[in-house]
Structures are given as C-alpha cells and as structure tokens.
Specification:
By secondary structure, the chain is of the alpha+beta class. The protein is built from 21 helices and 25 strands. Strands 3, 4, 6, 7, 10, 13, 15, 16 and 17 form a nine-stranded mixed β-sheet that branches. The protein has a five-stranded mixed β-sheet with strand order 19-20-21-23-22, covered by helices on one side. A four-stranded antiparallel β-sheet has the order 11-12-18-14, with no helix packed on it. The N terminus and C terminus are likely disordered. The structure holds ligand BES and zinc ion (ZN). The site of zinc ion has 4 residues, from helix 6. Zinc ion binds next to helix 6. InterPro entries: Aminopeptidase_N-like_N (IPR045357), Aminopeptidase_N-like_N_sf (IPR042097), ARM-type_fold (IPR016024), LTA4H_cat (IPR049980), M1_LTA-4_hydro/amino_C_sf (IPR038502), M1_LTA4H (IPR034015), Peptidase_M1 (IPR001930), Peptidase_M1_C (IPR015211). This is Leukotriene A-4 hydrolase. GO terms for molecular function: hydrolase activity.
Length: 667
Amino acid sequence: MWGRGFLQRARFAQLSPSSSSSRSLLSAASAAPPNSLYFQYQRGRWFGCSTEKMAPVRDPNTLSNYDAWRTRHTTANLKIDFTAKCLRGSVILELESQTDKASKEIILDSSYVTVNSIKLNSAPSSWETKARTEPNGSPVHIAVPEGAAKGEVVNVEIELATTDKCTALQWLTPAQTSDKAAPFMFSQCQAIHARSLFPCQDTPDVKSTYDFNITSPYVVVASGVPVPDETKDLGEEKLYKFQQKVPIPSYLFALSSGEIASAPVGKRSCVCTGPNELKASQWELEGDMDKFLEAAEKIVFPYRWGEYNVLVLPPSFPYGGMENPIFTFATPTIISGDKQNIDVIAHELAHSWSGNLVTSCSWEHFWLNEGWTMYLERRILASIHGGDAHFDFSAIRGWKALEEAIKEYGEDHEFTKLCISHKGIDPDDAFSTVPYEKGFHFVWSLDRLVGRENFDKFIPYYFGKWSNKSLDSYEFKDTFLEFFSAPEYSDLKGKIASIDWEGRFHSTGLPPKPEFDTSLADVCYELAEKWKSKDFIPSPSDVALWTGNQVLVFLNAVQDFEEPLTVEQSQALGKAYGLSESKNAELKAAYYHIAMRSKDASAYQGVADLLGEVGRMKFVRPLFRGLNKVDRELALKTFEKNREFYHPICRQMVEKDLGVSEAGNSS
Ligand code: BES
Ligand code: ZN
C-alpha cells in the first residue's frame, strides 16, 4: 500500500529526544542520556543507540509510536452482535501530536481485529496492517502525510469488527448462563488485550478520556459513568451511553452485556449481576462497600471517580477481580455466603488510587500497581477488622505465597524480580504473585523504615503527584527521595540512604524477611503441628471459630509438610472440616491440593468437577497442574470438556500448562 521510503521516514520521525515523553524519561533517569541523538531507556539506565535508530523502549509491549502521538480522547461507537459474536462499529481516536510535524504516521497496536477503513480528519487515509509478531500483534500504520504541529489534535476514525480470535472477549450462549434466558458477554483487557478490540495505543503509559456509545439488545455495563438520560430505544436494541472523564489507560476499557440486574449496596455503590444471583450478591457486599470506601479515603484521599460499583460475572471470569473504573468486574466465587472473600473488593477498590489514578508505565513496573494495591488493601482491611495483627496475618499469607512462587520459578528466574524485563515477553506469561507480594513487601518495608506516621503523609503526596499519570520504578524512587529530603525528615537521612533500590528492583529471589506479628497465624500452625501425628483425631470444633483465611493458612502449612498426609488422613481432614463440600472455592481448592499430594484418587473427580465450575485462573491453573501430575488422562479429559467454558486467556494459559496444542493434541 505504501512505498518503503515513506515508512522509514515516518518511523524515525518520533525520535527527537526533545519530545515531551522523552523529556519525562530524562527526568526519570539517574543520569542524563549519553550524548547521542538516539538512545534507549531500559530498567533505569540509558543505552546509547547511536547507529541503530530506535524509539526509547519505555514500554516493550506496545508497537505504537506514542512518543510522537498521544491519544487524548476515545469515542467507541460499538454494536454488540451476539449472533456473530463480535463487536462492530467505529472507534474515534483523538491524538495529539508530540512533535512539530516530524512524525508522518501514526502506529497503533492491534491483534486479530478486522479494520475496514480508516479516516484521518474525516477524509479517507492511507493505512496498512502490518504482519503479526508475537507477543505484540499487528501494528496498524496510518499515514499523516503533512504531519501535525506540536499540540495539534488529529482525528482517526476506524471502522472495525472484532474476530473470533479476539482474546479480550468471552461470549456465553444462553445455555452457559445460570438463568438460561439470554446470552452474555464480557471483556478483559489487562494486560494487552485491548488491542484485540480495536486498534489503539495499547500501553499503560497513555491515558485517554472515553465516550462509550454501545448498542445491544441487553443491558450494557462499561468502565464509565452511565448517562441514563441518553439511553435510546432502537427497536430490538438500545443505545447505552457512558462517559469516562478521568483519563484512563486502554487496559481499563471494559464492556459487558447480558441479562443484568442491579441493587444498591452502599451510598455510592450498586451491585450488578444476573437476576438469579442478585440477592446473594447484594447480601455479600452491602455491609462493607461504604466501610471500604471510607477507610481507603482516610488512607489516601477522596475517591475521584464518582460511583463505585461491582459487576459480578459468570464463573468463567478468569480473575478474582478486575479494577475496571466505575464497575469492578468480579468472579462469583466471592459470593460465598459468608463474606469471607470480599477482600477482593477491597483490593479492586484500592486500585482506584494505585493503578487507575497512578499507573505503572509498562508491565515491567507492574508492581507499582499491584504491590501498592496489596498494601492499601491490607491497610483498608486492617482498619476495619482490628489493626496490626490482622495486617500481619494477611502479610504472612502474602509472604508464604511469595515463597511458593519463587520456589516454583527457581530463585534465579527473571520473573522473580520486582522489575521484570518484558522484551519479547507476553505479560500474561510473566504474571504471578511476585509483583503483588514482592511489591507489597517493598512498600511495607518503606513504611516501617520511615515509620507509619511519616509514611502516611507520603501516601497522599505520592498519589497526588502522579494522579492521571504513569510512572516507572525510578520515578517512584525519585518521588520517595524528594518527599523525604524535606528538612522535617532530616533525622531519617541515614535510614533513607540505606535503601538498596537497585537490589530491591533487580534482585531475583526473596527480599529480606520481615518480622511478623504471628498471633493470628500461630493457632493455625499449632493445629497443623497436631496433624503431623498419624494418631490425631480431628473434630469440626478445631476450626469452628476460625475465619476462612485462618483455615487456609492451616491448610497451606499442612501442604508444606515434608511428608504428604496419608490417604486416610487426607480424607479425614476433608470430612472433619467440611472442605470438599465447602462453598468457599479457596478452601476447596487448598484441600484438593492436599488430597492430590496424598494421591487420594477418590478426590480426583471432585477436582475435575471444581474445574468445571470455576474459571478463575488462580484456581484453574494450579488445579490443572496438580491433576496433570497425578492423573494426566483425567486432566486432559477435563480440559477438553470445559474448553468452551473457559475464557480465551485462561484457555490459552492452561493449554501452555498442560502442553496441549490448540487442536487438543498433547505434546
Ligand atoms: N488487575 C488485577 C487482575 C489482572 C492482573 C488481570 C493482570 C490481568 C492481568 C486485579 O486487580 C487483581 O489483582 N485481582 C486479584 C485479586 C486478589 C489479589 C485479591 C485476583 O484476580 O485474584
Ligand atoms: Zn490487583
């Protein structure tokens, strides 16, 4: 479509180190870049690229030239077509030029999207979808022959349809829903799946405001504030409008549609879910939403998004929760009838500050989102449930999960670092507990170093300073050092100087272990000790007064025994504590891991059944790995049986875990 010369010229046009994003990179680095026109910024250091002309790699998971153009506003005019199982329509990107007519093309990310036409400032344009490369997809190049003056906004209107290879969407038939009455669909864009919905600058380093104009025969939920007055009846369908006036990164774009009912659960909150699930969901959440919001606001500053609602999805939702603004998307496994799993909601709410307002600029610094969120989640829950012992109990669980993840990877593995190189890496492959818990332990170590009173002043400063922006680990470091360089903190100088930033950011393996208040965990360990004796006779009263999380800590300790339980012991454990019948998927899954380690074949079918009931990857992936070890045939059969039940992201990950090709052959 285009001559080669055009593309080459355009590619290099973005490289001027004076572009605004290069400037912000400059301020992030500890030293100025080498004296070279072209340079690359990676993991805190400048790499000169004097001969090879490359863009600064601040986010290796985007092919877009967002240094030269930045999306400021996005309008999504999309029709949800349940028959063809696709989204179709137009998306309009308003992109601000960052160079003075130097860039002659806009490059967007895309993945398996059908683009029908692209207009530039309302006129037909010259564009091309380039060949796909993994993991980042197929860049769409749009010619801007005249370029644009710095600050000028150009309008790119893309006519498109999603395809059956779209990784962001799951489409459920009526039969796959609980009331069997209507189909259902939902999106999951984090980390790099937004590009499978429409071409965009799919990087957390770019934030845009949004208008959603979505047509569907069923109720629509989106990551914006509903504009109900503008809902229009279009015969069989309705047009649903939402606005997101706070700029958000593409991974927070979200849609869902189906038979969705809603009920109030707080002053600023409602829960949305299928009509059959509404009552239980309302009961589970209504006592705590306001408390969570108020606690979070005390720790950081007032909630900036208006409403905070929860959409409880069908069981194939692949995560516990997803912090889509205005509507957190959540797994139905949190509706367990005992309010034992709503810590997920405290977590997703906390993202309203850490992640959604203040965002890691790439998936290499994902800990800034998740580590900070774990910290805020634990602060919120501790403030509601009684203080330090609760906080430490949860931190102990986190430490345990971190130890396990690092053991599984091997302690020298790149993915055990706080800052993980993503060059050539799909963020879904690098995803693990590490950024959550290593991130949490780093933030908590800073809190303890400077003292809670001082750290509490830093929190609103940090979130205020970076609101509506994205940052990397070094910008976080600079902000911390800048705050604590104020004269009133001069007595902290020595302590601050002792922080091993490089070690914290780039060392593999476990960080220094903190001292925990183990008071709430000790009872769990004591019970576990008793189970080391083959003569121990359990009774339901052993755990009757415990929280679900205490039972989990106990089960994890048992799972860690040098010797597995005998089959008889494992069965006695399940019976005495009602584990295989539990409605709490966390407990059930933890028990099944013990049973599989004990080679209790009578439990395997229960594992397979659970794998047909939940699609949350946190459970599905480890359970499949466990089942695969003890009964590969059943694991493969179970996967084939439930292939369509799982979300495409989950399906792909399990395929990798089981070594199964798409065609279903084992390899
Ligand atoms: N943002 C994550 C989910 C996510 C991460 C989706 C990376 C895709 C890529 C969400 O906030 C999360 O952390 N969910 C957890 C909740 C838990 C830590 C309470 C989950 O799904 O288990
Ligand atoms: Zn999270």
